[in-house]
Amino acid sequence: MHRLLGLDKVWFYLHNYITKEADMKKLGVILILLLFFSVPAQAWERTYGGSYVEVGLSVQQTSDGGYIIAGGTYSFGNPGGDVYLIKTDASGDTIWTRTYGGSDWEVGRSVQETSDGGYIIAGQRGLIIDTLADVYLIKTDASGDTIWTRTYGGSKQDGGYSVQQTSDGGYIIAGWTASFSYPYVDVYLIKTDASGDTIWTRTYGGNDADGSNSVCETSDGGYIIAGYTRSFGADEADVYLIKTDADGNSAGIEEDKETKSAPGLLLEVRSPSEGELDLSYFMPGSGLARVELYDAAGKRVGVIEDGERQAGWHHITHPLSLPCGVYFVQLSATLEEGYKLSRSNITQKIILLGN
After folding, report:
1. CATH number of the structural domain spanning residue 124
2. 280-328 pLDDT, tens per residue?
3. For the chain, what is the domain count?
């Protein structure tokens, strides 16, 4: 397609210059104008795929001036769906393609060229016959050959939607999780080392569906996450922006914060002594209970209890080997109320003293 305004100008100059003065210099100007205004407005477009369904979900220009594309394919590899990686030159012509996956389904949602000239791909892999899905991370060399793969998640649905190599050579992955926030969906942040082994994970969200689509390391060594929230903001879904520190902490834990949805939730923590934490909590109904320990900066330093619990009182003694200081014990409960599930939490401050 040509620029219409450009062609109109060419015809105007052509008519006036030729009829008024046969000047070769002016004719040269006309030819230059014709060449200039005839440049296509669109450089090129390409399609890639086979006889079934393919989709591209992420693209980045590579250091050689070409492009790397990640998505999914049903035409190549496993017919149940595989990650699809395409490397092109600067004109979009294919240099090579790769598929990754197993016997079920996989898809790539984010790709980035890494400092060694290879690629890191984040996405999702799951079972065709079940709703189980995990975050899927693939590291390749410069030719797209697999160096290693990793999966992250729990017993329900989890997905990776964005990945970036971090300044320490590791990776930061953002997505969503239902495994660690059931019955809700939370933003899921995973920090790994250079081999893809987990350093820490974090979840963010409230009593509804929240997720993330993009993550970036910031100049202060922390992370900025963009996504959506139905737990906070106005009606329906809103943009959700989360700023964290280098350990993925978004804010400190508020002391004695209890939601109104389960007023019967109780937590009693006795003064720690002789390296042991002694606490009791009351569940007003049956459900999931999780007891976590945080330091004064809001960093989680331990999980004391996590699992299904019946209504009533529960007692825990837990060994401690932490430095002196201020800590917070947080009880989170997911309770069944009629036909609905609600999540509540309560927090209590403790002080660890030296012997």
Report:
1. 2.120.10.30
2. 999 888 888 888 888 776 677 888 888 888 889 999 988 888 888 888 8
3. 3
